[in-house]
Amino acid sequence: MYTIGLIFKNRDATAWILMISAMGIHVLDEALTDFIDFYNSLVQELRDGLGFFPAPIIPYGAWLGGLIAVVIAGFALTPLVDRGRGFFWILTIAMGMNMIAKASGIMLGSLLFGRLLPGFWSSPFLLAAALFVVVRGIRGKR
Do 44 and 57 form a contact (C-beta atoms < 8 A)? Predict the structure, then answer.
């Protein structure tokens, strides 16, 4: 039975809700540290230097609204993740691997750029939660 809180039928749902919560904190971290300005200026520099770069310039409202919608959708999917159906096993592992890449990229990018990139402070928490999701997902299907 699905209940409020971190008590679910399976531990995969607990891992999922921890990762979605870490994603929400990460979105807040990026919003407070001007991620979209960093991203848009980087894309523009790459376009200027290369003549073409296949990434869009994103307006702040669309970026933030889209990420808030993704986090809300993630929370809304929790009961389905809790049931452990096949597609959601794949979804949890794919999302976890995506968040591992994102958090790792921000931390490694901070070393490369020689400064803390937007979203740096929440990246270790996002990485830990995403690793938990992937480990739970893989263990659950052995």
Answer: yes
Long-range contacts of 107-114 (CB under 8 A, 24+ apart): none
| Domain layout of the chain by residue ranges | 15-140
pTM beyond cutoff 0.85: yes
pLDDT of residue 101: 98
Read out DSSP for 97-129?
Answer: HHHHHHHHHHHHHHHHHTSPPTTTTTHHHHHHH
Whether 23 and 123 have beta carbons less than 8 Å apart is answered as no
- Which of these, 22, 35, 42, lies nearest to 124 by C-alpha position? 22
Query: Do 129 and 106 form a contact (C-beta atoms < 8 A)?
Result: no
What is d(CA 123, CA 107) in angstroms, rounded to the nearest whole number?
A: 7
